[in-house]
Amino acid sequence: MASVSDRSLTRAEAEGRAALLTVDRYDLEVDLRGLLEGERWSSVATISFQCHEPGASTFVDAAGVVRRATLNGVALDPAEVAEGRLPLRDLAADNVLVVAMDTDETADGQGILRTVDTDGLVYVWSSFEPDEARRAWACFDQPDLKAPHAFTVHAPTAWTVTSCTAPDSVVDAEDGGRTWRFADTPPLSTYVVVVNAGPFHEIRAQRDGYDLGLYSRQSIRAVLERDAEDLFRVTAQGLAFFGERFGSPFPQARYDQVFVPNLGGAMENWGCVTYGDGILPRSEPTPDDRSWVAVFVLHEMAHMWFGDLVTMRWWDDLWLNEAFASFASTWAMANATEFTDAWATFLIAEKLVAYDEDMSPATHPIRSEVPDVAHATANFDGITYYKGQAVLRQLVEYVGEPAFVAGLQAYFARHAYANTVLADLVGAVAEASGRDLDAWTVDWLDRTGADTLSLGGGELVGTAPDGGLPRPHRLDVGCFSWSGDRLERLARVPVELSGDRVAVTLPQADLHLLNDGDLTYAAVRTDPASTRTLLASAGALPDALSRAVAVGTAWDLLVRGEAAATDVAGCLLDVLEKEDSPAVVEPFLDRAFALVERWLPSAAQPEVRARLADVAARVAERPGLRGSALRTVAGAAAGDAHRALLDAAASDDTDLAWRLLARRAELGEPVDDAVAALLDRDPDPEARFRALAVRASAPAEAGKAEAWTALLVDREVPAGGAVREVSSRFWRPGQQELLLPWAHRWFDQVAAMPPGGLLSTMSLVRMTYPPIGDDAVLARAREAAAADGVPAPVRSMLVMGADRLARMLRARSA
């Protein structure tokens, strides 16, 4: 037996292997019984495949310990495995390869994660994007060698196993445990199949002909039961919407969703989506909590068509996979669910992230060359997801929604269960719309940065960051005039920019809102009088999306150094004084809180923080908004009135109670007894990490050191929300002197970080990046990004983080 190390598949190797082989099927036998009390995952992969040049050689990916292997009945030498590859020589026209393999590396989330819950129960999940299936069993691990997969899984008796299809049978195994056999999948890429197992709590429902399943670990059973109806409703709504819009209903009856511990995101496995269970709020969900869960559900569901049914040929089109799912989720939210203001939520919570990243030195085109799989996730960021989503929305406006839908339906019909490149999708939409999209595609996907569109002198003028002509834009200008204390929309004037300027005839108005409806992706600058009205009175605009566009414009002015943080804070607070849309209240509150903590000059912070707490307290009196608003009051509490309000509300709201304790600790108050008491009454299995976050808030070395070790040394804080909370409580504003040495230490820690799963490692670096610093910290950031051996995704995050910190420091010093 031989142990192996990684070697990344190159594009050239993948193209050569795809030309040589056709994979007929995978029959996979997986033994999980060694995971009940140990770390071993075992597999036997039987791969039937054709070789188009008999006598040729290739290799199979096998990034584990190969115990035995045969090719067409002839034994292969496991000692020949090198860098995760087993050579295959003298292939026949038709071949059967059998590889038995073990892996004991099930603790770091590289393809497989075994977790022992606080109650002692063991759960196992798999997640294979981009090329982690090779760690679970031997396979040709590239997206364009699709094949049906048949799973036989041996598991402990008490465990439930989920995979891509319904189980055909579950029987007792002669040598212990139970054996689960699953129906064949359709032809699928290796990265979208799955095996999850553990003593799950299961809830099932029949909706519109679909058999829907929900699973969670037992320790959060009550949370899943609370949210099950919401989850079933949005799942059924999404399946109906996508089935109709894509002209192709999801083709199997069973659709499972599994909420697992310590997964930093979600994975779109065919018919069996996995989510990090941190997306399920432990306290009563706010409107924003419910909206985020719906976004996750619909994003992963959209991948069933775009990614699973039709799959990109190579990872250079990964952006399209993710951007399309992001676009489709918001499209479905706005049209098929209760979350009708979803485009406003997207703008404030996500699209602004893309704008910020797109102006950094780490900006990149939406699509780029991917020479090997190691670079596939280099651009897994806000530009890929959120700019990509915005560009797809602009494409819908450019060609018209009916043509876009017709193009999608033709695309799915032509390429079901096959692989495509971008030109296949663009060609289908171009054919349906009658518009030539070749130049449009190059302009939007191969150029970096955001254009700036400026209104004045009777024309709209566009400038591009690369000095060339701006991209083509289809947008609206909203014209608003005062009617009492409200700004009323007089007209919405459509504009199409195809060069660097276009004449625009607008009615006289008090505010001309550029990009009303948020149809395009661009920095916008309206006339000076309108800008003054926007900053002072954005809350008077008539709908959530127009208010979000105003706030987004103000935020861009701040980030680019064209507006003072105090003026932008005034804009946000004016909106919050009047906002009643659940879709944007919490995103607006979060944006205002971030501005106070990270962007305001220190001298202005106390006054604006107190005003924010006052405004949030008034928002809490509005129907349905109490929970959202009190979270901000807890973070910004600045007086006895705020404390009294929070003490009363926190008695039966553990989430709020933890937030209040964190604020008290940050202010230097003793909280140890209160923390111990709250731990006793909080049923959340991750409550100990909330206690850790409280201790990290205090201006004391001991709490910082404890949190640091848990986050970055032992890496025991669950991925996702828990990492975000502990990290945000660690880096508190007002603790600059204490935290500067830790900021320098962070770069050393990241440089020495051991490998881990894609999602957890990327989220850890992003969420723990220090927002505290000075010129010396910025120099460390740039030095760390330039170091040899830094993984491409981490390098990008280091550069973007440094740019964001530099902009914050500039705003604070203004």
From TrEMBL:
Looking at the keywords, is Endoplasmic reticulum present? no
Q: Which GO terms describe its cellular component?
A: cytoplasm; extracellular space; membrane
Residues covered by the ERAP1-like C-terminal domain: 513-788
User: Which intervals hold domain Aminopeptidase N-like N-terminal?
Assistant: 121-192
What EC number(s) does its UniProt record assign?
3.4.11.2
Start and end of every Peptidase M1 membrane alanine aminopeptidase domain? 234-443
Q: Which CDD domains match?
A: M1_APN
Q: Which NCBIfam families match?
A: pepN_strep_liv
Q: Which family does it belong to?
A: Belongs to the peptidase M1 family.
Q: Which PANTHER family match?
A: PROTEASE M1 ZINC METALLOPROTEASE, PUROMYCIN-SENSITIVE AMINOPEPTIDASE-RELATED
Official protein name in the record? Aminopeptidase N
Q: Which organism is it from?
A: Nocardioides lianchengensis
